[in-house]
Please model this.
Amino acid sequence: MNVQQPVCPVGGFDPYDLSAPHANWQQFRSTAPVFYHPDTNYWIVSNYNDIKGVFDDWETFSSENAQAPMTPLGDKAKAIVKAGGFTSGLSARTPPTHTRIRKVAQTAFSPRRFKAIEPQIEAIIERHLSAMEGKAQVDFFRDVAYPVPALVLFTLMGIPDQDVDKVKSWATSRALLTWGNLTGDDQLPHAQAMVDYWNYCRALVAARKAAPGDDFPSDMLAAQRDGAEISDEEIAGVMYSVLFAGHETTTTLMANALKVLMDNRTAWDAICADPSLIKGATEEILRYAPSIVSWRRLAKKPTQIGGVDIPQGANILLVMGAGNRDETVFPGGEDFDITRDNARTHLSLGYGIHFCIGFQLAKLEFGLMLRALTKKFPKLHLAEGHPINYIPSISFRVPDKLIIKPHGAS
Model:
């Protein structure tokens, strides 16, 4: 195949800089919706239908590179990971292995279990929001959005509260090592943290095998005892994936959502007045300000995307954050509109066989948080003089803080 390589239409483009990517993404969609980026060796895809088509064709576009470090590990970091016995989580698996493991995981990760812990979710949210009472300023990201999803998920997983900070720290290391741009010795502490995280998951599975509880790993082990084809290492891999994706993305969703709502005060006031708008607002926030803005695939054979020739072995970066604003699918896509009637067709949770396994929990948890927050602090505003920076990453748009005034601007 004579492969053409459309070039990036934006000079000096840095895919790790997610501070204000939307103008670049808009330029990509209009002038070069599929192009090759030599600095990362990825083909970047920004149109909605092209992204959806790649997600849907798992045989041509494999997920096997989804969790590979964007910046290759150095020899020292590789040695740490190898010595730790790390394998992989669920999102990097391919059928038929992925299909077999996901079937067991979905049985355990059920709406029945989510509904059972809803009172506990509400209590966790209430406890953290009550701690904001009387304070002039609060870092919502650090004090609320950071711990709440972890505490909720760990309730589901049967993990003690005292491990929250430890697991959150490991998850940060995993994100930096996998989707960041670390090189050399900067990789080493994060490689060790990822191994520690993996071994924690393995130990948790072993503990539940010895003494079952009423939680997610126990449910998967019960399925295993009943004949489901899943190994202890594969259950640990699911835990590794869920313990990360199940709280990091919700943490970022909560923070990004509040920032967007503060920048769109009319929408905030409307939700405060009418909580029934929360369901639609949740979908629009996921479309407009998602936690994960891009994901990766590997071309298994020569193919095309959007009429552009793609060689076998090509790395593909699907920029869902750009596709979510595609004007051909979402009229006025650069505008935030909580009444948008097709917002739920966004790509922020993926598409196809790898569609986010925990989407129901994330939406439930976020909806409960937004309901409680608008009821308790309707006059909430952002504090001035605290610019937000975003952690360098090719996939996760994570703010470093969100300083708010719970009781209003005055």
Remarks:
- Residues 145 and 254 are 6 Å apart (CA to CA).
- The mean pLDDT is 91.
- The chain has one domain: 22-405.
